[in-house]
Amino acid sequence: MEFKPLEIPDVVLITPRVFGDERGFFMETFRQSEFEAHCGKYSFVQDNHSRSTKGVLRGLHYQIEHPQGKLVRVTRGEVFDVAVDIRRDSPTFGKWVGVYLNEENKQMLWVPPGFAHGFYVTSEVAEFQYKCTDYYAPEYECCIAWNESDLAIRWPDIGVAPSLSLKDQKGCTLFESELFATGL
Ligand SMILES: Cc1cn([C@H]2C[C@H](O)[C@@H](COP(=O)(O)OP(=O)(O)O[C@H]3O[C@@H](C)C(=O)[C@@H](O)[C@H]3O)O2)c(=O)[nH]c1=O
Residues of the signal sequence (predicted)? Predict the structure, then answer.
Protein backbone atom coordinates (compact mmCIF):
# COMPACT_ATOMS: atom_id res chain seq x y z
CA MET A 1 0.00 0.00 0.00
CA GLU A 2 1.28 3.44 -0.84
CA PHE A 3 0.47 6.40 1.41
CA LYS A 4 0.70 9.90 -0.08
CA PRO A 5 0.08 12.96 2.09
CA LEU A 6 -1.82 15.61 0.12
CA GLU A 7 -1.52 19.43 0.18
CA ILE A 8 -3.08 19.29 3.62
CA PRO A 9 -0.60 16.68 4.83
CA ASP A 10 -2.86 15.05 7.42
CA VAL A 11 -5.14 14.01 4.55
CA VAL A 12 -3.60 10.92 2.99
CA LEU A 13 -4.30 9.26 -0.35
CA ILE A 14 -3.83 5.51 -0.11
CA THR A 15 -3.20 3.35 -3.15
CA PRO A 16 -3.59 -0.36 -2.51
CA ARG A 17 -1.48 -3.08 -4.10
CA VAL A 18 -3.81 -4.96 -6.41
CA PHE A 19 -3.06 -8.58 -7.31
CA GLY A 20 -4.88 -9.46 -10.51
CA ASP A 21 -5.14 -12.96 -11.88
CA GLU A 22 -7.46 -15.02 -14.06
CA ARG A 23 -10.02 -15.12 -11.26
CA GLY A 24 -10.20 -11.38 -10.84
CA PHE A 25 -8.21 -9.45 -8.22
CA PHE A 26 -7.26 -9.37 -4.58
CA MET A 27 -6.23 -6.40 -2.47
CA GLU A 28 -5.85 -5.52 1.17
CA THR A 29 -8.04 -2.53 1.94
CA PHE A 30 -6.91 -1.96 5.53
CA ARG A 31 -3.90 -3.03 7.55
CA GLN A 32 -3.72 -1.55 11.05
CA SER A 33 0.10 -1.47 11.34
CA GLU A 34 0.66 0.33 8.02
CA PHE A 35 -2.24 2.68 8.59
CA GLU A 36 -0.89 3.63 12.02
CA ALA A 37 2.61 4.22 10.67
CA HIS A 38 1.39 6.68 8.03
CA CYS A 39 -1.84 8.16 9.35
CA GLY A 40 -1.63 7.86 13.14
CA LYS A 41 -3.11 5.71 15.85
CA TYR A 42 -6.86 5.48 15.49
CA SER A 43 -9.39 2.76 16.02
CA PHE A 44 -12.44 2.36 13.85
CA VAL A 45 -15.84 1.68 15.37
CA GLN A 46 -18.33 1.99 12.49
CA ASP A 47 -18.41 0.98 8.80
CA ASN A 48 -20.81 2.66 6.36
CA HIS A 49 -21.96 2.07 2.81
CA SER A 50 -24.07 4.38 0.62
CA ARG A 51 -25.23 4.24 -2.98
CA SER A 52 -25.91 7.39 -4.98
CA THR A 53 -26.79 8.28 -8.54
CA LYS A 54 -25.00 10.73 -10.81
CA GLY A 55 -25.08 14.32 -9.61
CA VAL A 56 -25.77 13.47 -5.97
CA LEU A 57 -23.68 15.59 -3.66
CA ARG A 58 -23.46 14.56 0.01
CA GLY A 59 -21.80 16.96 2.44
CA LEU A 60 -19.98 18.79 3.73
CA HIS A 61 -20.55 16.94 6.99
CA TYR A 62 -18.86 16.93 10.37
CA GLN A 63 -19.74 16.38 14.03
CA ILE A 64 -19.04 19.15 16.56
CA GLU A 65 -18.66 16.55 19.31
CA HIS A 66 -17.30 13.08 18.69
CA PRO A 67 -15.58 14.16 15.45
CA GLN A 68 -15.18 11.25 13.09
CA GLY A 69 -12.06 10.33 11.13
CA LYS A 70 -13.11 8.58 7.92
CA LEU A 71 -11.27 6.14 5.70
CA VAL A 72 -13.26 6.30 2.49
CA ARG A 73 -13.30 4.45 -0.84
CA VAL A 74 -15.47 3.79 -3.85
CA THR A 75 -16.30 0.22 -4.86
CA ARG A 76 -18.51 1.08 -7.83
CA GLY A 77 -18.40 4.13 -10.09
CA GLU A 78 -16.65 7.37 -9.24
CA VAL A 79 -16.89 10.35 -6.94
CA PHE A 80 -14.99 13.57 -6.44
CA ASP A 81 -14.20 13.43 -2.75
CA VAL A 82 -13.46 16.54 -0.69
CA ALA A 83 -12.00 17.14 2.77
CA VAL A 84 -12.08 20.61 4.36
CA ASP A 85 -9.83 21.46 7.28
CA ILE A 86 -12.00 22.96 10.04
CA ARG A 87 -9.49 22.58 12.88
CA ARG A 88 -9.41 26.16 14.06
CA ASP A 89 -5.77 26.02 15.20
CA SER A 90 -4.58 24.52 11.95
CA PRO A 91 -2.37 26.48 9.51
CA THR A 92 -4.56 25.04 6.75
CA PHE A 93 -7.87 25.98 8.40
CA GLY A 94 -10.51 26.59 5.71
CA LYS A 95 -8.46 24.89 2.98
CA TRP A 96 -9.75 21.92 1.02
CA VAL A 97 -8.36 19.01 -0.96
CA GLY A 98 -10.23 16.93 -3.51
CA VAL A 99 -9.49 13.67 -5.32
CA TYR A 100 -11.30 11.37 -7.69
CA LEU A 101 -11.92 7.98 -6.10
CA ASN A 102 -13.22 5.27 -8.38
CA GLU A 103 -13.52 1.55 -8.84
CA GLU A 104 -10.58 1.58 -11.27
CA ASN A 105 -7.95 3.37 -9.15
CA LYS A 106 -9.29 1.70 -5.97
CA GLN A 107 -7.73 4.53 -3.99
CA MET A 108 -8.77 5.43 -0.47
CA LEU A 109 -8.72 8.75 1.29
CA TRP A 110 -7.96 9.21 4.97
CA VAL A 111 -9.92 12.18 6.27
CA PRO A 112 -8.89 12.79 9.91
CA PRO A 113 -11.18 14.01 12.69
CA GLY A 114 -11.53 17.80 12.47
CA PHE A 115 -12.41 17.84 8.79
CA ALA A 116 -15.71 18.39 7.01
CA HIS A 117 -16.24 15.79 4.30
CA GLY A 118 -18.35 15.46 1.18
CA PHE A 119 -18.48 13.96 -2.28
CA TYR A 120 -20.05 14.50 -5.69
CA VAL A 121 -21.01 11.51 -7.83
CA THR A 122 -19.54 11.72 -11.34
CA SER A 123 -20.60 8.26 -12.62
CA GLU A 124 -24.10 6.89 -13.27
CA VAL A 125 -24.04 5.16 -9.88
CA ALA A 126 -21.50 5.18 -7.06
CA GLU A 127 -21.15 2.88 -4.10
CA PHE A 128 -19.25 4.58 -1.29
CA GLN A 129 -17.83 2.68 1.67
CA TYR A 130 -16.03 4.03 4.70
CA LYS A 131 -14.76 3.29 8.16
CA CYS A 132 -15.26 5.81 10.98
CA THR A 133 -13.27 6.42 14.16
CA ASP A 134 -16.33 7.48 16.15
CA TYR A 135 -20.03 6.73 16.11
CA TYR A 136 -22.63 8.65 14.14
CA ALA A 137 -24.11 11.22 16.52
CA PRO A 138 -26.89 13.10 14.67
CA GLU A 139 -27.36 15.54 17.53
CA TYR A 140 -23.83 16.83 16.87
CA GLU A 141 -23.95 16.68 13.09
CA CYS A 142 -23.38 19.87 11.10
CA CYS A 143 -23.26 20.69 7.44
CA ILE A 144 -21.28 23.39 5.68
CA ALA A 145 -22.81 24.27 2.31
CA TRP A 146 -21.09 22.57 -0.64
CA ASN A 147 -20.90 25.92 -2.46
CA GLU A 148 -19.74 28.00 0.52
CA SER A 149 -17.94 30.90 -1.13
CA ASP A 150 -15.14 31.17 1.46
CA LEU A 151 -14.10 27.62 0.61
CA ALA A 152 -14.28 28.03 -3.19
CA ILE A 153 -14.24 24.31 -3.83
CA ARG A 154 -13.71 23.52 -7.51
CA TRP A 155 -16.27 20.76 -7.95
CA PRO A 156 -16.10 19.03 -11.34
CA ASP A 157 -18.48 20.22 -14.03
CA ILE A 158 -20.40 17.09 -15.02
CA GLY A 159 -23.30 18.89 -16.68
CA VAL A 160 -25.70 17.88 -13.91
CA ALA A 161 -26.74 20.22 -11.11
CA PRO A 162 -25.84 18.79 -7.70
CA SER A 163 -28.71 16.94 -6.10
CA LEU A 164 -28.79 17.52 -2.34
CA SER A 165 -30.68 16.16 0.65
CA LEU A 166 -32.96 18.65 2.44
CA LYS A 167 -30.44 18.77 5.25
CA ASP A 168 -27.59 19.54 2.88
CA GLN A 169 -29.61 22.30 1.18
CA LYS A 170 -29.55 24.08 4.53
CA GLY A 171 -25.80 23.93 4.93
CA CYS A 172 -24.22 26.94 6.59
CA THR A 173 -21.09 28.97 5.95
CA LEU A 174 -17.76 28.11 7.48
CA PHE A 175 -18.08 30.95 9.95
CA GLU A 176 -21.71 30.36 10.83
CA SER A 177 -20.87 26.80 11.67
CA GLU A 178 -20.57 25.93 15.31
CA LEU A 179 -17.00 24.87 15.02
CA PHE A 180 -15.69 27.81 17.01
CA ALA A 181 -17.67 26.58 19.98
CA THR A 182 -15.87 23.26 19.96
CA GLY A 183 -12.44 21.89 20.52
CA LEU A 184 -12.02 20.68 16.94
C1 LIG B 1 -24.34 8.94 8.42
C2 LIG B 1 -25.39 8.01 9.05
C3 LIG B 1 -26.72 8.11 8.69
N4 LIG B 1 -27.64 7.28 9.25
C5 LIG B 1 -29.05 7.42 8.82
C6 LIG B 1 -29.66 8.78 9.11
C7 LIG B 1 -30.58 9.02 7.93
O8 LIG B 1 -31.88 8.51 8.22
C9 LIG B 1 -29.98 8.21 6.79
C10 LIG B 1 -29.24 9.07 5.77
O11 LIG B 1 -28.34 9.89 6.48
P12 LIG B 1 -27.58 11.10 5.81
O13 LIG B 1 -28.51 11.83 4.90
O14 LIG B 1 -26.91 11.88 6.88
O15 LIG B 1 -26.48 10.32 4.92
P16 LIG B 1 -25.26 10.97 4.14
O17 LIG B 1 -25.66 12.26 3.54
O18 LIG B 1 -24.73 9.92 3.25
O19 LIG B 1 -24.21 11.27 5.30
C20 LIG B 1 -22.86 10.96 5.13
O21 LIG B 1 -22.31 11.90 4.22
C22 LIG B 1 -20.91 11.78 4.00
C23 LIG B 1 -20.49 12.90 3.09
C24 LIG B 1 -20.13 11.69 5.24
O25 LIG B 1 -19.03 12.22 5.38
C26 LIG B 1 -20.69 10.81 6.30
O27 LIG B 1 -20.00 10.95 7.52
C28 LIG B 1 -22.16 11.04 6.49
O29 LIG B 1 -22.36 12.31 7.08
O30 LIG B 1 -29.09 7.27 7.39
C31 LIG B 1 -27.29 6.37 10.19
O32 LIG B 1 -28.15 5.61 10.72
N33 LIG B 1 -25.98 6.24 10.55
C34 LIG B 1 -25.02 7.03 10.02
O35 LIG B 1 -23.79 6.89 10.36
Answer: none
